[in-house]
Amino acid sequence: MEKLLDVRDMHVSFRSGKTNVEAIRGASFHVNEREIMAIVGESGSGKSVLTQSCLRLIASPPGQIDAGEVWFCGRDLMRLTESQLQRVRGREISVIFQDAMTALNPTMRIGDQITEMLLEHLRMTRADARALAGEILPLREEPDKLEKWLQRNLRSGGERLERDSAELSRFLGGNNAREGVERWLLERGTYSKEQARQEAVNLLARVKIPDPEKRMEQYIFQCSGGMRQRVMIAMALSCRPRLVIADEPTTALDVTIKAEILDLLAELIRSLQTSIILITHDLGTVASCADRIGVMYGGQFMEQGTTRQIFYETLHPYTLGLMEAAPRLDLPRSRKLSTIPGSPPNLDHMPAGCPFSTRCSYCMAVCKANQPPLTDKNGHTVHCWLYDPRAAAQRELFEADKEKKHGRKND
Amino acid sequence: MAEKMIEIRDLCVSFPLDGKRTLEAVSHVDLSIFRGETMGLVGESGCGKTTLGRAVKGIVPISSGSVLYRGHDVARMSFSDRKRFQRETQMIFQDPYSSLDPRMTVREIVREGMKAHRLGTAREQNDRVDSMLELVGLNPEHANRFPHEFSGGQRQRIGIARALALDPAFIVCDEPTSALDVSIQAQIVTLLKEIQARMGLTLLFISHDLAMVKYVSDRIAVMYLGQIIELAEADDLYDHPQHPYTRALLSSIQLADPDAEARRVRIRLQGDVPNPIDLPQGCRFQGRCPNACPECRTKEHRLVAVSPTHLTSCSVGAAPL
Questions:
Q1: Is A326 helix (H, G, I), strand (E, B) or coil?
Q2: What rounded mean pLDDT belongs to chain B?
Q3: Is A360 an interface residue toward B (CB < 8 Å)?
Q4: B263 exposure class (CB count in 10 Å sphere: 0-12, 13-18, 19+)
Q5: Contact map slice: A 287-326 vs B, CB within 8 A
Q6: Is the reported ipTM for this assembly greater than 0.90?
Q7: CA B61 to CA B57: how far, in whole Å?
Q8: Would an 8 Å CB–CB cutoff place A99 in contact with chain B?
Q9: Which one, out of A308, A409, B13, B275, has a CA that is 20 to 30 A from the CA of A38?
């Protein structure tokens, strides 16, 4: 499968006073085309910082990306200029935030906000015109394909399409075709204001908001939590991005609404053939919809694999601990919750070795002193010393505990 | 049967909106909580579960109806009885950040109630602070620190220590774990259960986390728009839900198990929760109910027993699936 996003060895730190706090300590992951990649972790594990760093969205200062590459469609986003990256943000990679109330403008009508965003993101720049002209010219002899292209890329249709085709053919026939087409594109733009407004209404209808025309005139505080999140999704998908980063999109919602929003998101993602990074702290959220899962702790990935691998062939003690710590409806109430002792590490005083070593029940001397190596089992990767051949005895303990867990599940 | 610790009789709590209109957050609720049990109270945001919890504790004025503590109406208690009620009923709040005064040290926070009730000498109070902190798993040497020096889970432990310092009999736990990380939630819930067993506490456990409520509660009440719509023993409620809302609620819980998730059939509800200011006629759930019949649009349902321990307000949805 094709890798859409490939993040390699990210290091991000925050300066606070005289100290430098390392929030992301060497994290690598990738997202395939058309897949839902979930990043699971507790607060402070760095899941939001990592994904925001991929778009260079962290405030700097105090934040600072120390190292790492983010490959997206053949470009390293870390090496783009700010204005080049601005064209990627929102258009090719968009973000859905947890709290629409703070992410959206409370003093602007919903419709105006979406319209403004569409006009801004789909504005035609000189560079766009040049690139698009390059796509149009080869279609010069094939009117059918040209029409399809116009519909897809300029959202042209009906009368507008006829006018566009007529005007274009005039320029294409001229002797300086390329320059003419470029000028025409710049003048035409992608959207008129009315078109953008109509598109905004369509978007709201698409996320199943009843009576979208009326909602356009409302403010975000007039919407319920579920409706707000729908508006956020509509905005994030408006430019048909290739990748959506959804940062805890359902955390603030009630169970019934949560299930609905997740279904909607999964459905739209599939129909638009978009990929998504789903950030969450809740394993229940990802069990049904994610294709792959990465488990983060202390600014690093502990384990990455397909959803089935993570749930049924768990390799890391932290992942197992997380699953055992949550009460489960399908297990008897008499089962004692197993707790992970202690609390997540303070990023100021990270252990020299594995970040989880202070809370791990299988901790060995080596875990405290040295960073665990990466073990790869058919794409199921884990950072843990248990998979070193010298740790066979300790690993047996872990396997036995895991067996107990799965055995209990089958009772 | 065990003694009734709390008895709620036909309780209503309304908040005035703008002169004419009122919002009825809790509407004609009857509920008894027996000594030593954990009563779970679940519902979605805005259903009135927190208001009900606060009304029981007496920190929200009651519009009509009554709350009885050990058989005595709280509203008609003598001054000294009321003082005792206030000491013996405590509360643990949801947000461990805003429920602790940032300018007080942990010792002052935990000791404040004992001071207010003039329990023991200063020395005894300090000793009790130390033993309470130890009980909840904190180091008594940290008693002179301020709340901001602690993590969320530790702060929630401070809140628990504060509630326990007065040796209460009944505690209202208002979403005590929902602001915490998964691994910390388990610690706090395990701690609460241990302390309950040791001190013989009665708990009202309010939460929107249905899996957590099932885990901690003996009996569970489900609320919808200010009313209790179903009340049953924990396992019975999850195995045989009667009310269509309860069924929909339970069916939307996401399970941390891909195979179980694949088997889960979700009952989809239409629309949003109605505006509590402008309630529908008849059953409050009828607008979203898949089984609504004409009768539901006119007649308000009351809780009826389907078995001695299982009550539901829906007679229509209770038909076999």
A1: coil
A2: 89
A3: no
A4: exposed
A5: 287-288, 307-308, 311-312, 321-323, 325-326
A6: no
A7: 10
A8: no
A9: A409
